[in-house]
Amino acid sequence: MAFVSFNLAPVSLRRWAAISSLAIYGCLSWFTVFWTRYILTETLALFLTMLAIAVGIIALRRGGSLWAIAGAICGLALMVRPDSLLLVVAFGLALAVKFVRHRSAKMIGQMLLFSCGLMVILSPWTLRNYLAFRQLQPLASEFGFAKSGYMPTGYLRWIRTWITDETYFDVFTPAFSPHSQPFDPLKLPSSVFDSSEERAQVAQLMNDYKNEQAFTVEMNDKFEAIANARIHRAPLRFFFWLPLKRILSVWLTGFATTNRLHRIARMLLVLPILIGGISGFAFYVRNRAVAGLLLLVVLTRTIFLGYHYAPESRYIGEAYPALIAACGVTYAALRFHFNQGLRRGQGG
């Protein structure tokens, strides 16, 4: 963290940017502290994300085989969590922007080195899957099934037409855990439904699920029809307002709570990091190549979660270090301006 912030900052701010970002991440980033105390793959994914960024920063300066190392680290991150594909996309976009700016054979070589490093890590697992199952599958399945299983994607699409945070995450249980107890649609707020007829239709489908103990193709198709009708009635809600609310939810609240005071407290704790990070990117960073890579890491994951059917806040964790690195630069700049003001006051 300190290394990344050091390289992001102007020369005059580097030392305090490194110290500030280290202190923020270690002591004030309650979000990462909360999740890394559990045995979750996010902890290792956080480390590999930052390691890839650190190597990427050196590669941006020196080039050469370091891009292959960065690609290999991204491959390891993919083996830990499939959503690390977003990290690969961020690196790919950063290299593509660099190629557009310079248009040289050297840049093509760097892109190839990154790709080779990535494939070296993914190839053994992909080959194993093909030999064992006659299936070309480089990553785990999207839904985490150990074996091929039926996922009611129409039902998930219906959820995506209204869900904004983790408050009603029990709606996912029937899809991911067949034969489980279904949720009660009557407990959902009226804002979830466009009409009383729609609520009754959903209640009937969940009653059918309760009888069958699993989703059938017919049930899934009916949920998809409800979802498509909702999208048709309010496309702006589906493509803009709901994604915006999901983005605000994963960044601001951290995780679901029905206690308003808890929610406000979490927002107040995370807002200084968000404001500091945005200010750092906007006003204080000088290394455009490093800033571009970090911004792409943040934006790719943020946009993805805005349109994903499950806006689970722990998935934004891998974007926090990049934002905190910029936040460290901001607080180093504030310290510098404060000291300058003191000196002027003493001189006067």
In short:
With 348 residues, this protein is mainly alpha-helical.
Describe what this molecule looks like in 3D.
72% of the residues lie in helices and 0% in strands. Helix 2 (14-28) packs across helix 15, helix 4 (41-62) packs antiparallel against helix 14 (288-307) and helix 13 (260-284) packs across helix 15 (320-347). It has two domains: 2-142 and 241-347, no CATH class; 153-233, no CATH class. The chain has 15 helices and no strands. With 348 residues, the chain is mostly helical. The longest helix has 29 residues, at 105-133. The mean pLDDT is 90. It is globular, with a radius of gyration of 23 Å.
Defining traits:
2 domains, single chain, mainly alpha, 348 residues
Q: Please tally the β strands and state the result.
A: 0
Total helical elements? 15
Query: CA-to-CA gap between the ends?
Result: 39 Å
Report Rg.
23 Å
Poorly predicted residue ranges = none
What structural class results from the helix and strand content? mainly alpha
Average pLDDT works out at: 90
Shape: globular
- What's the main sheet like? none
Number of domains: 2
Strand content: under 5%
One letter per element, helices H and strands E, the order comes to HHHHHHHHHHHHHHH
Fraction in helix: over 70%
Describe the secondary structure blueprint for this structure.
Elements: H1 2-8, H2 14-28, H3 30-36, H4 41-62, H5 66-80, H6 85-102, H7 105-133, H8 153-160, H9 173-176, H10 196-212, H11 217-233, H12 235-252, H13 260-284, H14 288-307, H15 320-347
Helix pairs in contact: 1-2, 1-15, 2-15, 4-5, 4-14, 5-7, 6-7, 6-14, 8-11, 10-11, 11-12, 12-14, 13-15, 14-15
